[in-house]
Amino acid sequence: MPRVPVEPPAPKPAGAGEGKSKKDGTRVGFILLPDYSMIAFANAVETLRMANYISRRPLYQWTVVNADPAATVASNGLAMTNAGSLSDLAGCDMIFV
């Protein structure tokens, strides 16, 4: 089988990646809607928390907001009070609804 040469990645353009250091980690936002699945939400947050714990550094940060300014009730009946506003999601790298 012939060998395929592997080229190094192209250099990043000037200014690429500025404003966010590796120390900041990935910022994840969650928007909770009425009747959301608590188990899905809890598993998503726990996965991020465990990654931080195992790596011993903050790989992930998360922000949780409700679509409704009042508490949002999950499908299991538990209510999550509003922890922030939609504007808090502006700095997130990804957002889950």
List the helices and strands and how they pair.
Elements: E1 26-32, H1 38-55, E2 60-66, E3 72-73, E4 79-80, E5 94-96
Parallel strand pairs: 1-2, 1-5
Antiparallel strand pairs: 3-4
Summed up:
With 97 residues, this protein is an alpha/beta fold. It has one helix spanning 38-55, and strands at 26-32, 60-66, 72-73, 79-80, 94-96.
Structure description:
- The protein is an alpha/beta fold.
- It is 19% helix and 22% strand.
- The protein is built from one helix and five strands, in the order βαββββ.
- The strands form two sheets. It has a three-stranded parallel β-sheet with strand order 2-1-5, covered by helices on one side. Strands 3-4 form a two-stranded antiparallel sheet.
- The mean pLDDT is 82.
Number of strands: 5
**What is the 3D form?**
globular
Determine the mean pLDDT. Answer: 82
- Low-confidence sequence ranges: none
The portion of residues forming beta strands comes to: 15-25%
What level of helicity do the residues show? Answer: 10-25%
